[in-house]
User: What shape does this take?
Amino acid sequence: MAIENFKEKMTLRLELDGGMVDGKQKVTPKSFSQIKADADDEALYNTAVALSGLQTRDLLKVKKIEVTSIWED
Assistant: This one.
């Protein structure tokens, strides 16, 4: 039997530079939900870069978080 899947939702997470604390890099997350589940990676990245320009902290990393349902057909 085939396994089916469906992307339910997607979140775009920016990890921003929170400075050094006790010799370790502190990461300050900023999440944006209600992202279209079919958005492509390049568009997500470009959006994250544009949003990071509005932040006071530097962008360290961009993450895409997906919630997907899977079931047996």
